């Protein structure tokens, strides 16, 4: 067997994305960012530090600004990462749900749909989402609530299975597997506080999208029922009787994405 020409073999590259490292300035740090204040000699050596008025890098790397997709197009982490790895998000991006769910540890197969979800505070009487993010310090409650939702059965969709995993802060990933699912559905997130929880609607006229919208609405109702009966919310109601404001925990941010 002939060996490949070494000159024709593409080099392998290790790409490390430290997403969000730039951070924001902090008044207590003299309006500097934590990265500016931190002592980072190894990171400086890897990235190469551009010293003022010199115009050249003092180490192994280069510094600069990059538009991940195109100038003027603001990108989230998901679309920016896709572009950096060579996939045009305008062609390949199907929503953040799969990123969140697989990142939380859910295995997905072709045909599954996945959702990025928030635990939020909900006024159960009016159906208004009081706060879209229940609490960023949610690590003590998130795993317990996700465990209660994992394996949830939908009465009108017995062929479909639901998987739920805690992600981080107030977020979790939910994936649904089963026949004839479509990602052509809208979410239930009102996008602002103090607005009603939305109902899922199809984005096209296909039978698959219509069925999936019905499934998502039943999923939302069942999640709300399970969480309403969960000891976490029972405890909140008990606390309300002693002068503390009760809050319902319910997932509101559902974004379709295979």
From TrEMBL:
Pathway: Carbohydrate degradation. GO terms for biological process: glycolytic process. The keyword Cell division does not apply. InterPro entries: Alkaline_phosphatase_core_sf, Metalloenzyme, Pglycerate_mutase_ApgM, Pglycerate_mutase_ApgM_sf. Residues 12-255 form the Metalloenzyme domain. Keywords: Glycolysis. Pfam families: Metalloenzyme, PhosphMutase. The keyword Plastid does not apply. It catalyses: (2R)-2-phosphoglycerate = (2R)-3-phosphoglycerate. GO terms for molecular function: metal ion binding; phosphoglycerate mutase activity. Catalyzes the interconversion of 2-phosphoglycerate and 3-phosphoglycerate. Belongs to the BPG-independent phosphoglycerate mutase family. A-PGAM subfamily. This is Metalloenzyme domain-containing protein.
